[in-house]
Amino acid sequence: MSVVVDAPPSRRIKELEVMVADVLVETPDTSTLVFFTGNDHLEYSAGHFLTIDPHQFEALERFTAFLEDLKGKREPPRAYSMCSAPHERYLAVTVKEEQYMSGATKYPPLLSPMLVKRTVRGMRLVVTGFTGPYIMSPDIESQADHIVHICAGSGSVPNFSMLKYALVSYPRLRHTFIYSNKTWRDVIFRDALTELERRNPDRLRVIHTLTREPDVSLCGPLVRKGRISAAMLQDLVPDLSSCIVYVCGPGISKWDREAAKERGDAPVPRFLESVLADLKTLGVPNARIKRESYG
Ligand SMILES: Cc1cc2nc3c(=O)[nH]c(=O)nc-3n(C[C@H](O)[C@H](O)[C@H](O)COP(=O)(O)OP(=O)(O)OC[C@H]3O[C@@H](n4cnc5c(N)ncnc54)[C@H](O)[C@@H]3O)c2cc1C
């Protein structure tokens, strides 16, 4: 992973008690939690994440203890990228509910179903933040004039924050935002992205591509069908190798690696690995690719 850190993490990381000011339903399985943070000064960069410890929720106590018994280890805090940007008034995260598929998923997901479906206004929780290497370097305008965002599912969250921040703070940058989802109703920030594009017609182009939508022509003239591929990237961004590319989405998890090892084969590449392979094919230098895996 390319690491750009603009301050020692120790200065930034602290526990904050926040209150849920609003819950915005983005899609059937995804919600944005808007936090009221009082007068605390929030020092974070677009692209950073915070963590939420599941042990703080009384409603999850038995389930957490049961999973810890099954797994034989303590459940760690979960990471959530901020969808809000540093110049905005509220702190917010966007959480997609992890699914349990009988026979395919080893354990039921612990925290995300509760955050998405059972969080209400006024609820208090403790978050720890802020950190992460998936951010823009302050001198990014001297490195490129075109930023390409390649995201899938909730991988759009940190990129949405970086996009909003860059449109305000780095006027020389233009952006192409390529966003893959299963269907049109799975697209997170759909209206907000359309509005940003409308307000910045010379600086932002948003391209949606849908893998399981039967008829993409019903979703709009510019919506594509299928997975992101090298051919699609080359077609959309002819100057790709001079851009800085931010890729975020599902990647091979350590559980996938362990399961593959037990089977005696290699883990199946997911979105992140497949896009990185495409970028390599297209000759994009590794140093110009920033990546974050939600595996
Ligand atoms: C840097 C970063 C930023 C992230 N930002 C976001 C974000 O903005 N929005 C978002 O929605 N998500 C984000 N995520 C993902 C998020 O942190 C959680 O992983 C996700 O919400 C699932 O958590 P969960 O508690 O619901 O599921 P979990 O309980 O963690 O389960 C998830 C999967 O892992 C498997 N699993 C868990 N433990 C084991 C084990 N011991 N052995 C084998 N398999 C196991 C389960 O079977 C299940 O399939 C981010 C992740 C990272 C690393």
What does this structure look like?
The protein is of the alpha/beta class and 295 residues long. The chain contains nine helices and twelve strands. The strands form two sheets. A six-stranded antiparallel β-sheet has the order 4-3-6-1-2-5. Strands 10-9-8-7-11-12 form a six-stranded parallel β-sheet, sandwiched between helices. Helix 5 links the parallel strand 7 and strand 8. The N terminus is likely disordered. Bound molecules: flavin-adenine dinucleotide. The site of flavin-adenine dinucleotide (FAD) has 24 residues, from strand 4 and strand 5.
Short recap of the structure:
This protein has 295 residues and is an alpha/beta fold. It contains nine helices and twelve strands. The longest helix is centred in the middle third of the chain and has 14 residues, at 156-169.
